TrEMBL record:
Example GO molecular function: oxidoreductase activity, acting on the CH-CH group of donors, NAD or NADP as acceptor
Family annotation (CDD domains): PGDH
Domain Enoyl reductase (ER): 19-332
Residues spanning the signal sequence: none
UniProt protein name: NADP-dependent oxidoreductase
Keyword flag Ubl conjugation: no
InterPro entries membership: ADH-like_C (IPR013149), ADH_N_2 (IPR041694), ER (IPR020843), GroES-like_sf (IPR011032), MDR_fam (IPR045010), NAD(P)-bd_dom_sf (IPR036291)
Keywords associated with the record: Oxidoreductase
Organism listed in the record: Pseudomonas nicosulfuronedens
Length: 334
């Protein structure tokens, strides 16, 4: 095994603004052997997520930042090729924090087994992975939807947003998605069954919300923040729930993150705005996984993956998330 080379992208500096190739150091190291309690995994697919930009910042958050010189953190799926851990054997397929590299070597903290015979491996990084769990618990537990509610989702053609909208339809809600571009908006309505779509690149979002949500918004699932959050806050219905899942419009800011200007709408409408972090629900993942797998099997929920090949493309592929180029869950095939 020692003759094999492990390509890695390590965090070289903390970016100001967007991360670029210079943010990372590309290194090649020999592949080691697992010690007691460790496993060696050949990484196959890596999940690229907006949260990765936040992990590069040396700031207080829900998880410690990636240290300078450490392999860039990333969730992924792969196959165990050597093991000294009693719970994992050679040939097991696993999901865990594998890092942006060819091989993971270490203790499998938080790792769990997956099965490519039951579902394609990339699906375990999208609807059957953290993406799906974020949508499931964020919408159902924080958004508290009721049948007949008008639900608005920003970043609706993205990984989490597209799943949230479909769950909302399953729960009997009226769903409006905000996305960038005619193709994405058509996909939401024609393929995923959204009731309406607002193209923020081609129309005024305030006017679109007035058209699509004449009675106001009962649940807003926000992945974007910024001007879109302000626009939706102005259309809230009484007792509305706003789920703050992310704020991708703000992650690459060189200045301080801009908060909502319309927050007094929460007061006037007796509404609630609450953040959610998916790992708070780790003890309930099996519950979410079971429902999501059932909905997929029944044809009620679709998952779209945007798969890019080549570990070497990592910096440029990650950037697609912030330009809106990705269509569905962005996955890097190692």
């Amino acid at each position: 095994m020692s003759a094999q080379i492990n390509r890695q992208f390590q965090l070289a500096q903390r970016p100001v603004g967007a991360a670029t190739r210079d943010t990372f150091a590309y290194v090649e190291t020999p592949v080691g052997e697992p010690g007691p309690g460790q496993i060696l995994v050949k990484n196959q697919y890596l999940s690229l997520d907006p949260a990765m930009r936040g992990w590069m910042n040396d700031a207080k958050s829900y998880i410690a930042p990636v240290a300078i010189g450490d392999v860039m953190r990333a969730l992924g799926v792969g196959k165990v090729i050597a093991s000294q851990h009693p719970d994992f054997k050679v040939g097991d397929e696993v999901n865990g924090a594998l890092g942006v590299q060819d091989y993971f070597l270490g203790e499998p903290k938080g790792f769990y087994k997956v099965d490519s015979q039951r579902a394609p491996l990339p699906l375990y990084l999208s609807a059957l992975g953290m993406t799906g769990m974020t949508a499931y618990f964020g919408f159902l537990d924080v958004g508290l939807p009721q049948a007949g509610d008008t639900v608005v989702v920003s970043g609706a053609a993205g990984a989490v947003g597209s799943v949230v909208g479909q769950i909302a339809k399953i729960k009997g809600c009226r769903v409006v998605g905000i996305a960038g571009g005619a193709d994405k908006c058509r996909y939401l309505v024609d393929e995923l069954g959204f009731d309406g779509a607002i193209d923020y690149k081609a129309e005024d979002v305030n006017a679109g919300l007035k058209r699509e949500c004449p009675k106001g918004v009962n649940v807003f699932f926000d992945n974007v923040g910024g001007d879109i959050l302000d626009a939706v806050l102005a259309r809230l219905a009484p007792k509305a729930r706003v789920v703050i899942c992310g704020a991708i419009s703000q992650y690459n800011n060189k200045e301080a993150v801009r908060g909502p200007a319309n927050y007094l709408s929460l007061l006037v409408n007796r509404a609630r705005m609450e953040g959610m972090v998916v790992m708070d629900y780790a003890h309930r993942f099996q519950e979410g996984f079971k429902d999501m797998a059932t909905w997929i099997a029944e044809g009620k929920l679709k998952s779209k993956e945007d798969i890019v090949e080549g570990l070497e493309t990592f910096p440029e592929t990650l950037a697609k998330l912030f330009s809106g180029e990705n269509f569905g869950k962005l996955v890097l095939k190692v």
